Amino acid sequence: MSLKPGVSTVGFIGIGVMGKSMAGHLLKAGYKLHVYTRTQEKAEELVAEGAVWQDTPAGLAAASDVIITMVGYPKDVEQIYLGEQGLIAQAKPGAYLIDMTTSSPLLARRIYEAAAARGLHALDAPVSGGDVGAREGRLSIMAGGDEEAFEAVRPLLELMGTNIVLQGKAGSGQHTKMCNQIAIASNMMGVCEALAYAKASGLDPQTVLKSIETGAAGSWSLSNLAPRIIDGNFEPGFYVKHFIKDMGIALEAAKDMGLDLPGLALAESLYQRLADMGYAEKGTQALYKAYRP
Amino acid sequence: MSLKPGVSTVGFIGIGVMGKSMAGHLLKAGYKLHVYTRTQEKAEELVAEGAVWQDTPAGLAAASDVIITMVGYPKDVEQIYLGEQGLIAQAKPGAYLIDMTTSSPLLARRIYEAAAARGLHALDAPVSGGDVGAREGRLSIMAGGDEEAFEAVRPLLELMGTNIVLQGKAGSGQHTKMCNQIAIASNMMGVCEALAYAKASGLDPQTVLKSIETGAAGSWSLSNLAPRIIDGNFEPGFYVKHFIKDMGIALEAAKDMGLDLPGLALAESLYQRLADMGYAEKGTQALYKAYRP
């Protein structure tokens, strides 16, 4: 069981809710797995299942043919890849570096170029599908980079996702993820405003859903998150604080391209207000609270 | 084939694209159909199939046990129902009046009350599903009014729609339709902004859809209207000018309830800008043009 002859050790950095499931699929498939994450105890379960703990990203890099990162913020990505003890400096010649964090498209290009200059193959490959998709190996994986590198690591990606698409050159995976978040951002306003209006006008929101969710107003969020809102369940599928991060990246990238996205800007400001109200650790459906606090 | 014993003549006012299909289903089912519409020639086909032309709403009212209206704007609804020669004044005792126009919830309540005072049964029952839904008899029908009246006319509604829900007292059908339009309005911004971002960042929008349309960003609009935008097809399924009318009704109703809907307000202003650019007669997907003119 190997990626290709001589390529069989995968390093995984970032063992959070998503990363743990994703790395677990690789381990189960028989890859040698080395792991590093900021809080060591989060990796304990994987280590118990056979993963090798590494104390530093540099140590992990020295041992790995393919390195996958799934960390928090662009600044974390930047440090892990481009810092002095970073992956670009430390990776084995010819290694594949796959950043699956939702991060900046521009940073993805910088990493790609720095990697290429050292004979390394970098891909950006953020995902959607959340913790459930990660657990079930059914993520949507949006990749950017060279086709050859993408095809080389495809067997690994197929252990984690079902909808795996190379979107274009380096940065294109991140740009595609931004499209995803942009579409969600305004739609969440629509879902929450429809429910706020339903409530204010004395309708039964559950009955309203019966009329509207299968037609032109239908969406994943309306079918999956509106019922949680109606039940008063604001627990996180996807965290408000992470969504604000993503929208910030998208707004900055759009600004760089001279593109005005007023819907996204409005959604971001409403989510920021929501975080200020104390809902940063809740799920994105908590946006409803910004309308009816 | 009748609604119930003694109830077999239906008057239909407003033979537009939607109304023509809807009235046609009633005629095919064997109801005696009387029709009136502002532009007589639009009714010619139905008359050729057996419908009876009436020169005035009053004449139609005198002949009908059930009257269905599907006209343009709230002011048309107000005139037809509450004007001097209007339906409330002219309808036969015990008649059922069903307004299927997307119109004001407050006006629906006024009509209901005026009708009740004269022993008439008024329902508001706007629809979604567009020209295709009307043609195929698969509309979603959102009704408001008394349950008894709703059940009495249900056999008629079932000829026009498949998802038929009584949402509550008079006005509730219109309020539900507003929920539908509110959800669509912000989502359209999300869809168009995602595509504008995709284009600006050099992605292939078609390939982007492959990655995002089946996940949390998925929506009816993303799957059905984004491909038209990508093809440069801005022909109307649903007209920009009609959507602006609906958003105006929703914003006014929200204001009356002291409810702030910033996403809807932003969408309305973008669509207004789009109409000012000359796209009022195009489909709602033309919103894309407001981002990349």
Account of the 3D structure:
- Two copies of one chain form a homodimer.
- Chain A has 15 helices and nine strands.
- The first copy, chain A, is an alpha/beta fold.
- In chain A, strands 3-2-1-4-5-6 form a six-stranded parallel beta sheet, sandwiched between helices.
- In chain A, helix 9 (172-200) crosses helix 13.
- The longest helix of chain A has 29 residues, at 172-200.
- Chain A is globular, with a radius of gyration of 20 Å.
- Chain A starts with 8 loop residues before the first strand and ends with a helix.
- The relative contact order of chain A is 0.09.
- The mean pLDDT of chain A is 96.
- The interface between A and B is large, with 70 and 70 residues.
Mind telling me the CATH class of the largest domain in chain A?
Alpha Beta
Note the run of SSEs of chain A as H and E.
Answer: EHEHEHEHHEHEEHEHEHHHHHHH
What do we call the CATH topology of the largest domain in chain A?
Rossmann fold
Question: How much strand of chain A?
Answer: 5-15%
- Return the structural class of chain A: alpha/beta
**Which strands sit side by side, in order, in the main sheet of chain A?**
3-2-1-4-5-6
Q: Tell me about the largest β-sheet of chain A.
A: 6 strands, parallel
Number of H/I helices of chain A: 15
Question: Helicity of chain A, in percent?
Answer: 40-55%
Task: Evaluate the radius of gyration of chain A.
Answer: 20 Å
Unreliable segments of 5+ consecutive residues of chain A: none
Q: Which architecture name of the largest domain in chain A does CATH use? A: 3-Layer(aba) Sandwich
Shape of chain A: globular
